[in-house]
Write a structure and sequence with these properties.
Low-confidence stretches: 433-437
Number of helices: 20
Radius of gyration: 22 Å
Number of domains: 2
Largest sheet: 9 strands, mixed
CATH class of the largest domain: Alpha Beta
Strand content: 5-15%
CATH architecture of the largest domain: 3-Layer(aba) Sandwich
CATH topology of the largest domain: EreA/ChaN-like  fold
Distance between the termini: 31 Å
């Protein structure tokens, strides 16, 4: 793997990479690159790797302590994330991080019910508890849209407390979903075929009705009321977008992927606006898979017509957003073989030849951080199309080239990359079979 000057690309990368040795100063360069950015998007190459969660937590802690970030937004359903949000801010009924994470009962439970997330949520609670009373507490939020029925329930619960008449109107609008017995896939199938009348108009009307009553429900100086209204409004928005998502699911992968990532980007934008304070713009760290956070325009996804959160955030916020990807060459991963299967400890195949993973392995560095914004030989060489691996909640090593690789131009996809050559599987909190009900998180893409 030589360039025209006869120097291996791996050697060129090694010369400019920042080795990660487990020191407190490892991410000093990244903190410098972040500067005054409002958004830092931290990816992962799998949904089941301990080091990815661990390193994202370490980076996030520094962003909170040194850069004033006040929220973490993750690839998870909004109601489940908000339960954790209440816990880390000292609200709600949960007494421990593990209890606060019990909302994550849908497949794949190990994405958020794992030891690394427990540790991070515990740290967030301790950090918030130690803050001065005039300092904003750091929040924790979900961005995804799989909680169609749960979010309808949260809208009704809110309205029953503040406006029973409006609650009845909402119940009437959402009634058409009752025919499908909380099976959102079944609703999407029939709605896509026009066999049953779509519930779309009712979901749109309900969101607009709620928004028009904002002044009635929220007193000007009540932050608690503003937070609860935001929670209800976002759930109503989620119901509207989830209805569209489940209809689009049976019209093709591109349509459903785009609806989902547009929703996550829209939720992020709404969250920034909600958390902004006069004279102090909010800052958010995002945890999602590389496939969502790397700019889709630099990948096969973009050529197929898909966009993603990373692309939409860059288009909206420019250099106020920093996109960081993660890669690994080999090790183990927690993943399933099929939908709704129990998680397994799986061996990760060594990176394929001509992949970014194999190239980074050839540097001989166990772990490193690489700035992809720099103008140097290594970045220039990395700009060629190469294979990149993506392992979601499903991992099938026997069909890895077809199932888990795509072409990408890494320096256009991310602003920086963190490579950990050998990684270990994340430790799930439980191995019980997932409950039925809402569509599994990440379905049908597995990412």
């Amino acid at each position: 793997m030589l360039n025209i000057a006869g120097t291996s690309i791996a050697q060129a990368v090694r010369q400019v990479a920042y080795p990660l040795r487990g020191a407190a100063s490892d991410y000093d360069p990244l903190m410098d690159w972040v500067g005054d950015a409002r958004l830092v998007l931290l990816g992962e190459a799998t949904h089941g790797t301990h080091e990815f969660y661990q390193q994202r937590a370490e980076i996030t802690q520094r962003l909170i302590q040194e850069k004033g970030f006040t929220a973490v937004a993750i690839e998870a359903d909004f109601p489940d994330g908000y339960r954790v949000n209440r816990f880390v801010r000292g609200m709600g009924d949960d007494q421990t991080p593990e209890e606060a994470l019990r909302g994550f009962q849908q497949f794949p439970t190990w994405m958020w019910r794992n030891a690394d997330v427990v540790n991070f949520v515990g740290w967030l609670r301790q950090y918030n508890d130690a803050l001065a009373t005039d300092r904003p507490k750091v929040g924790f939020y979900g961005l995804d849209l799989y909680s169609l029925y749960a979010s309808m329930g949260e809208v009704l619960k809110y309205l029953e407390q503040v406006d029973p008449e409006a609650a009845q109107r909402a119940r009437d609008r959402y009634a058409c979903f009752e025919h499908f017995e909380q099976d959102s896939q079944e609703y999407g199938f029939f709605a896509s075929l026009d066999i049953e009348e779509s519930c779309r108009d009712g979901t749109v009307s309900q969101l607009l009705d709620l928004q028009q009553q904002a002044a009635k429900y929220v007193q000007r100086d009540s932050q608690a009321e503003a937070d609860e209204f935001f929670y209800a409004e976002q759930n109503a928005r989620l119901v509207k977008n989830a209805e569209e998502y489940y209809r689009s699911m049976f019209q093709g992968r591109v349509d459903s992927w785009n609806v989902r990532d547009k929703h996550m980007a829209e939720t992020l934008e709404q969250l920034l606006a909600h958390l902004d304070r006069p004279g102090n713009q909010s800052k958010i760290v995002v945890w999602e898979h590389n496939s969502h956070l790397g700019d889709a325009r630099a990948t096969d996804m973009g050529q197929a017509g898909e966009w993603n959160v990373g692309q939409l955030v860059r288009e909206r916020y420019g250099k106020e957003a920093i996109l960081v990807g993660f890669t690994t060459y080999s090790g183990t991963v927690t993943a399933a073989s099929n939908w709704s299967d129990l998680p397994q400890l799986k061996q990760v195949n060594p990176g394929l030849p001509d992949s970014y993973e194999a190239l980074f392995h050839d540097t001989g560095l166990p772990r490193f951080l690489l700035n992809l914004r720099e103008q140097n030989q290594a970045v220039a060489e990395l700009s060629q199309n190469r294979l990149e691996r993506a392992i979601g909640v499903i991992y099938r090593p026997e069909s890895e080239r077809h199932s888990h690789y795509f072409y990408a131009r890494l320096p256009e996809q991310f602003d920086a990359v963190i490579h950990i050559d050998e990684t270990q599987a994340v430790q799930p909190l439980d191995l019980a079979p997932p409950e039925t009900g809402e569509v599994p998180e990440t379905f049908p893409s597995a990412l």
